[in-house]
Amino acid sequence: MSDQPNQSQEPPKPESTEQHAPAERAASMDSLDAHSELYAERTSGMTASEIRALFAVASRPEVVSLAGGMPNLAALPLDSLSQEVARLIAEQGQSALQYGSAHGVPELREQICEVMALEGISAHPDDVMVTVGSQMALDLVTRIFCDPGDVVLAEGPSYVGAMGAFATYQADVVHVAMDEHGLRPDALRQAIDETHRRGKQIKLLYTIPNFHNPAGVTLAAERRPEILEICSRHGILVLEDNPYGLLGFDGQTHPSLRAQDPENVIYLGSFSKTFASGMRVGWVLAPHAVREKLVLAAESATLCPPTLNQMIVSRYLSTHDWMGQIKTFQEQYRQRRDAMLEALEQYMPPGCHWTHPEGGFFVWFTAPEGVDTKAMLPRAVTNRVAYASGTGFYRDGLGSRQMRLSFCYPTPERIREGVRRLANTLNEELELLSTFGSNGQREISGPQAPSPDTA
Ligand SMILES: Cc1ncc(COP(=O)(O)O)c(C=O)c1O
Hints:
By secondary structure, this protein is α/β, with parallel strands linked by helices. The protein has two domains: 50-74 and 324-436, Aspartate Aminotransferase, domain 1, CATH 3.90.1150.10; 100-320, Type I PLP-dependent aspartate aminotransferase-like (Major domain) (Aspartate Aminotransferase, domain 2). It is built from 15 helices and 14 strands. The longest helix is centred in the last third of the chain and has 34 residues, at 412-445. Bound molecules: pyridoxal-5'-phosphate.
């Protein structure tokens, strides 16, 4: 697999920080856990994501992984970056290696405002708080707003890491349907009515308007004000998660929800996809009073985000052509998206359909009737291709015919080969289905390998 960058290093980890054991091992470890009676009730909602569990298998070199969401960092200017980092420590080491404020390094917060201005946001640096990736912001926002049983509305499908945060605070996720133009306002109204009828309080609408993870779609401009109006009328805060917004393939950006309703939108941003995910630098922009609460919550979580990393990002922004770098990323990911869409067109059997992303990392794929993508995964891995099966992106069991295909990390050649292997797997599956029906298919695919996503 000579075309896989970082192959000789420890494999990168997409939406996780650790690998997890299969279900059986986890269960037996649980029974050996002398403290199992002591855990807080909220830990029962904490389960390994299907993607995380899959990671150990999918990162084998012979497998083309279309599963993870690792950015492709091969184009970063590592030489000049390392010189900048050395200079930073030599010149400002005393402060770069010291504690900082929970709010974040002031200079970086100012630069973040310049980054957000690209999407029409006018913000004061005081209202920005730096976080350890936007994942930390997801955790903190949920922590300060959600009591057990509160409802968070989220697109169906939705980002696994966000649903993990909601589950940790025992909030219930109610999915809102999307189409190729993103979240559907009629479905939003219906979800709100039904949830209120059940007597539940809705705290947040969690949405990824641009180049959605995992659906690959973008919220249409004309729907944005309507969605904001619905939420504001019902007293629901909008949590806008926008890590991919600057990765539109023709350089286009979309006016952010925050720009249209500063008082009712909490905006999350990240340098993970536009610079380096390992820096773990993201941010939250919130109405002033909310931001104050977030700083208190952040203090208790981490005291402060890593000063060194913040200063590295700040230096990168001031000394490098970061806009040019984003253009390079856009071009690379566009080529990979094209490779994936062409290969899907060329190899996939009839009855499949998929989204056509205009930015970001992901294609959302729907297999023909009867296919269960989770049950099919062991066969796919045997055929040396991996994907993220659809059910992991829902809290309510939907998504069994769907899968997320990532085009961000493998080279275009690997993507084409991966899609070819996936099409072969699907054809085998369809043949089995036509011979045995769906029950037969499950029995046959089950024992081939332990399902990597059951942990
Ligand atoms: C939609 C979405 N939100 C948040 C995150 C977390 O990003 P970060 O690396 O900034 O924590 C990701 C990462 O894949 C993502 O796809």
